[in-house]
Design goal:
- With 178 residues, the chain is mainly alpha-helical.
- The chain has a single domain, classed as MFS general substrate transporter like domains (Growth Hormone, Chain: A).
- The protein is built from nine helices and no strands.
- Helix 2 runs antiparallel to helix 7 and helix 6 runs antiparallel to helix 7.
Length: 178
Amino acid sequence: MAQDFTDQTLEQIGFGYYQICLFITCGLGYMADSMWFSIPASILIPLRTEFNLSPSAASSVTSCFVSGMVFGSIFFGLVADKYGRVPCFYLSCILPPVFGIISATSNSIVLICICFVMIGIGVGGNVPVDSSLFLESIASKFQYLLALLTVSDFVHNNKDILVFCGGFWYMAGLDDHT
């Protein structure tokens, strides 16, 4: 009953300025997550040469990152249900760049691994929180746009930028048809 009332209200609101801004913000969150996936692999060789590490020791950074992602997806899912999506969204967006900067300035492989656990926690929590925040803020007839966020993988395929931009301009015109 309450869900029907909420959906009817969101249908009346339509797809306006707030939803467009939320779509762009969540899309940037997805883009940042995609970029963070490639960073651990791209720094392995510089880490090996900088700290004179074996290949298995250097790959511990990737293991720390993935472990943080697993923990982050569970942690942010539970915390978002208790304290709200928006604070968790902000926290998941702030953790990766802060600890990325700290890891870039660190002089210890242990500190780099700790930073990559924290980066992974932020990255792992960002996509579920982005998705739920976006889906809860738009009417059910526009929820298909979440799929557009998931295909906009900016790092691995440049053609997806065109899909994202085309989807944005198409979506901007949806406000007139509600």
